[in-house]
Task: structure prediction
Amino acid sequence: MRAALAGLTTRGRSFLAAGIAACACGLLLGEADLLRVGVFLCALPLATAFVVARTRYRLSCNRRIEPQRVVVGEVAQVVLRLENLSRVPTGVLLLEDRLPYSLGGRPRFVVGRIESRGIREVHYPVRSDVRGRYVIGPLSLRFADLFGLVELTRSFTVTDALVVTPPVVALAPIQLGGDWAGGGDSHARAISTMGDDDVTMREYRHGDDLRRVHWRSTARYGELMVRREEQPWQNRGVLFLDSRAIAHRGDGPGSSFEWAVAATASIGSHLSRAGFGLRFLTDVGHEVSGFAFDAVTGTPFEGLLLDTLAVVEASGGRDLTTGFSSVRRGGGEGLVVAVFGRLSDADLDACARLRHHASACVA
Result:
């Protein structure tokens, strides 16, 4: 009831003030008719507030973003699905969805009466010229009585995220030297540094031919091991992004840092679609790794990389030591592609030393 009284509109407060004034004048002047009018004016907003406070709407809201990942400058559609789960039809509803400033102003919709078990859908576009991960919601509802005397606000708690990724430019296929390849039918294999038993064995699976059981490995691991006929290994590589603020120039979408992020996204997508298993590193040691869609195990790297680059920020690092140490800790890599900003002489020396830890390096 207190919330309903606090939700009195300007019209409701005016009715209440006019009623109090009419009651006071009726008492002072001895006018019974004026007193009756004052009582009616006071009772109408109070009764309306009581009814609104006792009304219980059971509403559910489902938000759908199509698609949930878009490129900078592209438009996504947000669909709001509102369902009345109660047996009581609703009145007129005002919907307002909360949006970050980068996605524009808050969209508002007026939805008419929703019958019991009824469903209403509204949609609106969102667009951002700045990459990032944006939280959309929660949705708030404002509903009023038929006379417009009381207006209450209710909010849902569910939010959804829209990921705005850097642009991806299609790259022409080129032959990069140094990618290690193994034998067999698979076109994407990598040389392993493990022993022969580890390379060619796997655990027994239901339906495997018992003639392929390798008893020596079975004794070593304590479970049935069989020889593999095909190794689903991939070419491997490293993507390195120089995110130091001192190495880049400019601000906003036209800065060299944003160009470097877009270049990393384009190269990573290109190599991932070519079947590479990649690691992404920054100068501060942040790491993301994954595999292409056709790998037997692992996660799709392209989507993981784009999600990471959508929120990457310029770092306060002064040199590339930490990032290069992370590259070396990964062991031998077939290919290292680095996207740099401005390099000092010390940075160039560090790059030259890193060259000895990979089969091919591209800057």
Q: What stands out?
A: The two ends are 68 Å apart (CA to CA). The CA atoms of residues 84 and 223 lie 56 Å apart. The chain is about 30% helix and 25% strand.
